[in-house]
Write a structure and sequence with these properties.
Rossmann fold; alpha/beta; 8-stranded mixed β-sheet; about 15% strand
C-alpha cells in the first residue's frame, strides 16, 4: 500500500500457525502482504485483540503489513495443563528464585516460528509490556531477523528499575470468581488501577473488551506461567548494549505496572535508541495516542530503511 493513501485495509480471518512442537499460535493480518512486515507482540495475559483494530488499521495505512497474535496460553493459541503456585510467584517477585515452566526465550522462539510460517526472513517488531521484553529478547537472540525494535511500557530485566507497584501484586494473583461476569468485573478493576489517568478508558469500552477477551478464551494458570517467565527473566542490559538495531522506547510517566525507570534504562542500554516519555499515560494504549504510536513505529522503521540504504551504498 502506498503510504498516505485512503483505501480500505484488508483484514484476515483468525488463522493458526504451528510454531514449535506442541505450540500453535492464533494470528490475524491487516493490510497488504507486499508492505513492510510488522509483528505486534502483546503483554501479560493479553490476547491479540488488545491490539486495537483502529491502531492496526492506522499502522497498515502507514505502509505496514501488520500481524497481531495470541501468545501461547492466551486467547485461541495453544493452552496446556500446568500451574504455578501463588507462593512461587511471591517468592519470585521478592527475588528469591523460582523456576519458570518456560522462558521469554521460548516465547521469542514462538514469534520467530510465526514469522517463518508467514515466510518472513525479518520484520519490524513492536511489543508492549511483556511483549516488549519478548521483542527485546528476539533482537538479542536473532538480530538479523529484527529490522527495527519498538519497546512500549516495558523494561530490560534489571530488578532495580521498572518495578511494579507493590499494591498491584495481590490484585494480579488474587483468585478470580468463576464465570464471565466475574472476569469482566475483575478486569475492570485492574484496568482502573493501571490505566492512563490522563486518558481514562470508557467503562462500556472496557467491559466490551473484557467480554471479548473472555469469549475468546482465558486461562488463569496460563497468565501465572507468563508472570513467572517475566519475574525470572535475566538482566538484558549488557546484551542490549551490543544491539545496532534502530530502536524506540515509549513509556508512560504514570505507569504503575512497570515503573518509568524501566523505559529510561532500556533506552540508555541500547545505542542510539529514541526515548519518548508520555505524561499521563499509564499501562495501556489509549485511543488518543494511536497517532503517536503509529508515528514512532513508522519513524523507527524509516531509520532502519535508511541504515540499510547506507550499507548498500558503502
Amino acid at each position: 500500500m502506498k503510504r498516505g493513501t485512503q483505501v480500505s485495509v484488508a483484514v484476515s480471518e483468525e488463522l493458526h500457525a504451528p510454531v514449535s512442537p506442541g505450540i500453535e499460535l492464533c494470528y490475524q493480518t491487516y493490510g497488504d502482504p507486499g508492505d513492510e512486515p510488522l509483528l505486534l507482540v502483546m503483554g501479560l495475559g493479553g490476547p491479540m485483540t488488545w491490539w486495537d483494530p483502529g491502531l492496526c488499521t492506522m499502522l497498515a495505512e502507514a505502509g505496514f503489513f501488520v500481524v497481531r497474535y495470541d501468545n501461547r496460553y492466551t486467547g485461541r493459541s495453544t493452552k496446556a495443563p500446568g500451574r504455578v503456585t501463588r507462593k512461587a510467584l511471591v517468592q519470585a517477585f521478592l527475588g528469591r528464585g523460582g523456576r519458570a515452566p518456560y522462558t521469554l526465550d521460548d516465547m521469542a522462539a514462538d514469534a520467530f516460528g510465526l514469522m517463518s510460517h508467514l515466510g518472513w526472513d525479518s520484520a519490524h517488531v513492536c511489543g508492549v509490556s511483556m511483549g516488549g521484553m519478548i521483542a527485546q529478547t528476539m533482537a538479542l537472540n536473532e538480530p538479523s531477523r529484527v529490522r527495527s525494535l519498538v519497546s512500549i511500557m516495558s523494561t530490560l530485566g534489571k530488578r532495580s528499575v521498572g518495578w511494579q507497584h507493590p499494591s498491584l501484586l495481590p490484585v494480579l494473583i488474587a483468585k478470580r470468581g468463576v464465570g464471565r461476569e466475574a472476569y469482566v468485573a475483575s478486569s475492570a478493576k485492574t484496568w482502573k488501577l493501571i490505566g492512563s489517568p490522563a486518558y481514562p478508558i470508557d467503562e462500556q469500552e472496557a467491559r466490551a473488551r473484557a467480554e471479548e477477551t473472555y469469549d475468546r478464551g482465558v486461562s488463569a494458570s496460563g497468565v501465572m506461567r507468563q508472570m513467572m517467565a517475566v519475574l525470572t527473566q535475566p538482566n538484558r542490559s549488557r546484551g542490549l548494549a551490543s544491539l545496532r538495531i534502530p530502536t524506540a522506547v515509549v513509556h508512560g510517566a504514570a505507569d504503575k505496572m512497570v515503573h518509568v525507570s524501566g523505559g529510561r534504562a532500556t533506552a540508555r542500554a541500547i545505542p542510539g535508541a529514541e526515548l519518548l516519555l508520555i505524561d499521563g499515560m499509564g499501562h495501556d494504549t489509549p485511543r488518543e495516542l494511536f497517532g503517536t504510536f503509529t508515528d514512532i513505529i513508522r519513524r523507527t522503521a524509516d531509520r532502519a530503511a535508511s541504515v540499510e540504504r547506507e550499507h548498500r551504498s558503502a
